[in-house]
Amino acid sequence: KMIFRTGSCRFDRTVFSNFSMEIIKTKLMMDMILESTLTQGLKAHLSFEFRMSKGKPYQSVYEHNMNYCALIKGAQESIYRRWFTSMLKVGNFATSCPIMQGYYYMHGWTLDANYVPSFFYLGDYRITGTFFYGRFKKPMINPMLECSVEAVLN
What we know:
Blueprint: E1 2-11, E2 16-24, E3 27-34, E4 43-51, E5 59-67, H1 68-73, H2 79-88, E6 102-109, E7 123-132, E8 145-153
Antiparallel strand pairs: 1-8, 2-3, 3-6, 4-5, 4-7, 7-8
């Protein structure tokens, strides 16, 4: 089971007037107020980093860029689509683009063991999601939205 420990986000204040994320009793809570409509072309970059034990540095395990609008519309079944569908059970995220201005939330999400890729080792993870338009560049100096969660798979 993936147990969320800590999380943080940074966001562009011209896009979101508020974006908060916290972990309460290993459940992910998220609240956001979107000030700008998000249009076709929105992309997400997910990165998974792993370490065997505390004190050791994280090492990149897996990175993936995706068309976020296609993902939420359900154009293709994938592990990310299953994660998104499970988030909808505890949230009100948009399910198509454009994503209109307004209040969005997710209260009490956990990552079910059935949705953890089988190639993941037991240990500590840092999972980062970055939302952007255009090309992904590392490091992303001023991302539209970037959230990181530290978690333990045991």
